[in-house]
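Onboarding guide, step 5: your first structure request.
Type a short instruction followed by the sequence, for example:

Predict the 3D structure of this protein.
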Amino acid sequence: MTAAIHRLHFATVWSDDEQIEVYGYLVLTKDRAVLIDTGVGHDSAVVETLFRPKRSSVPELLARHGVDAGDISTVINSHLHYDHCGNNRLFPNADIVVQSAEVMAARQPKYTIENWFDYDGVRLVEVSGDRDIVPGIRVIASPGHTPGHQSVLIEDTSEPTLIAAQAAFTAAEYHAGGDPAQSFKGMEAAYLETIARLKSLKAHKVCFSHDRSSVRNV
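The system replies with structure tokens like these:
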């Protein structure tokens, strides 16, 4: 049995009147359930005011695939912006895998909602660089959108798939080799290098956090 990958639509948010969809990915292997990102949390007045989120129920999204929150053994946060780590605390049995550089960035003022990733009982696993997380699933350091952004390469599947997350905002941007305007301030070169490196992995399919479209046969 190879891994099954399911896109989950966590939320719709608005930024400067632009509608943005928020996706995560559930990866089911023979004996594990891994979740990539967790969407938008519920207890921040700042998020409610600035982004006006319309959320899906995370438990209901998981239940469609026969999974309960307690079944998730690993959560991989691509990065720690509010729309990617907001429901981490729903997964008490999961290790939360984040790049150390991202944790450092997230502790700076106005970066994220800190108690959405740093809370009592969190099983935070910091990694530095590429790392095999479970058999067939590897995180790939992909800085550029944020200092510690990471993507996820899923090789335990009939169609090796890269969850690029927000290494690029859209499939078109990724396919074109990037748009430095989408990078973290001062990280334009790292952003372009990341996209070139991710493309060199030659995954059969590449998926994103904010674009339902995917890139195939890159």
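Each response can be followed by summary notes, for example: The chain has a mean pLDDT of 96.
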